[in-house]
Amino acid sequence: MHRTTPQWQAADAAHFLHPFTDFQGLARKGARIITRAEGIYLWDSDGHRLLDAMSGLWCVNVGYGQQALVDAATRQMQQLPFYNAFFQTATPPAIELAELLAEVTPPQFQHVFFAGSGSEGNDTVVRMVRRYWDLLGQPERQVLISRRNAYHGSTMAGASLGGMSGMHAQGGLPIPGIAHIEQPYFHAHGQGLTADEFGLVAARWLEDEILAIGPGKVAAFIGEPVQGAGGVIIPPATYWPEIQRICDKYGVLLVSDEVICGFGRTGRWFGCETFGFRPDLMTFAKGVTSGYVPLGGVMVGERVARVLIERGGEFNHGYTYSGHPVACAVALANLKLIRELRLVEHVHDDVGPYLAEQYAALRGHPLVGDAETCGLMGAILLLKDPAHRRPFAEELEIGMVCRGHCFREGLVMRAVGDRMIVAPPLVITRGQIDELMALVRRCLDLTLADAQRQGWLS
Ligand SMILES: *Cc1c(COP(=O)(O)O)cnc(C)c1O
User: CA 44, CA 384: separation in Å to the nearest integer?
Assistant: First the structure.
């Protein structure tokens, strides 16, 4: 059905409660209606083209319009659109995907538990690690430690694991048995230290917390290799190996939330490979299907899988759509395409280093306090006085000012506070990165011009 943009916006405001949205604010402005996409570009209902430097919501790793994924979904819907994996049944796509995931993930992973999303995957993590310690006769090991400004989803357990204060303020969160330590954000917490020194200091906050709670009560530590929604916070190289050492020392399970970092984003298949640690569990979603259909899950390392399997008894947990055949068929096609197009190598050897060079060159810009990348994730910290590391006043919402320019200029770049972040589709070419950088520079310049005109720099 064809409607004009105002007609879409009116119907949207009348009936659609959007996620993470101030409903009145949106109704006043009207939603941006996206109607089609191809490659790394989106088009809105007015026919404007946008370069989607956020891969939808960090998920469209293979880019839009990949026919192989469409064909896989069509074939599977025709043959068997749904059957469940409860009651000792299975479907070929779920089995084949489990097999392929065991192949592309690090060697300790031979088993998978499927869910419908990243949030559900992290709910599974909470249930599973507590079950693991129960089965080992240590039921007092209940506490999961996470980090402030982490994002682990929006269900009760996901939002509790996450460290977003705005989310904890609503709905009585966090649930019991979740603790948070400070994030490894060098700009905020690393004054007076080198990055490598800070990485060790930040990791030892975990040890302090384990000792404060009591090692016999800590079940697991969970973290994103690079915090995505928190603003692309890239930890120093020393951080994760030290986290690993601490988890090993106290027998605490290590969980890597790979929902964003997985499937090539950091230049290896998984973020834990880029940062050199060996998780016991890995949550995945987003890039596993490139977002074409919803799918998530948990890779279960042999340490945990053996206990769940061999100690027996029913694990009273699962979802109607655990191992959904259409979602699994699309994931299979997606992972095969990532291999065929050699996208992980493309990020690692070619466009990742190229983006890093381009970001390094932004550092002289009068608004840029930091410009850093990891694989195909990038963050620019906007400061009013980079030389003295002075921030803009919070109420100016400088990130939102910049983001406004981005949309008008045809670029989707997200603002998280004063950090402007990107995570473009892995299929992006060098030529398209040039186009992205021209837009980024133009939007920074327009933001600078606003700041000068309004007197925000003094
Ligand atoms: C998006 C995200 C989630 C939640 O995934 P959903 O599919 O939205 O439930 C969990 N963890 C991380 C790191 C994420 O980025």
Answer: 33
181 C-alpha to center of ligand 1: Å?
20
Work out the number of other CB atoms within 10 angstroms of the CB of residue 278: 17
Domains belonging to the chain, first-starting first, are: 32-62+342-454 (3.90.1150.10), 67-340 (3.40.640.10)
Tens digit of each residue's pLDDT (9 = 90 or more) over 109-163: 999 999 999 999 999 999 999 999 999 999 999 999 999 999 999 999 999 999 9
Q: Is the pTM of this model over 0.85?
A: yes
- Beta partners for 373? 378
Pocket test for ligand 1, best of 152, 227, 290 (most atoms within 8 A of CB): 152
Mean pLDDT (the chain) is: 97
Task: Tell me, in angstroms, the distance from the centre of ligand 1 to residue 255's CA.
Answer: 14
User: Distance, CA 152 to ligand 1 centroid (Å)?
Assistant: 5
- Sign for the CA dihedral angle at 17, 18, 24, 30 comes to negative
- CA of residue 214 to ligand 1 center, whole Å: 29
In the structure, what pLDDT confidence band is assigned to residue 296 with cuts at 50, 70 and 90? Answer: very high
Contact at 8 Å (CB) between 46 and 9? no
Residue 27: CB partners within 8 Å, gap ≥ 6? 13
Taking the centre of ligand 1 as the mean of its atom positions, its distance from the CA of residue 365, in whole angstroms, is 33
CA quadruple 363, 369, 373, 376: dihedral sign: negative
**Cα(300) to centroid of ligand 1, in Å?**
18
Residue 46: partners with Cβ closer than 8 Å, 6 or more residues away? 5
Are 275 and 106 in contact by the 8 Å Cβ rule? The answer is: no
DSSP secondary structure string for all residues of 221-278: EEE-SSBSTTT-BPPPTTHHHHHHHHHHHHT-EEEEE-TTTTTTTTSSSSHHHHHT--
Of all atoms in ligand 1, which is nearest to the CA of residue 296? 7
Ligand 1: atom nearest CA of 228 is 15
d(C-alpha 256, C-alpha 278), whole Å: 9
Cα-based torsion angle of the residue sequence 392, 396, 399, 401 in order, rounded to the nearest 10 degrees: -130
Predicted pLDDT at 1: 63
Q: Could you tell me if the CB of 236 is within 6 A of ligand 1? A: no
Ligand 1 atom closest to Cα of 258?
13
The closest-lying atom of ligand 1 relative to the alpha carbon of residue 118 is 5
259 lines ligand 1 (CB under 6 A): yes
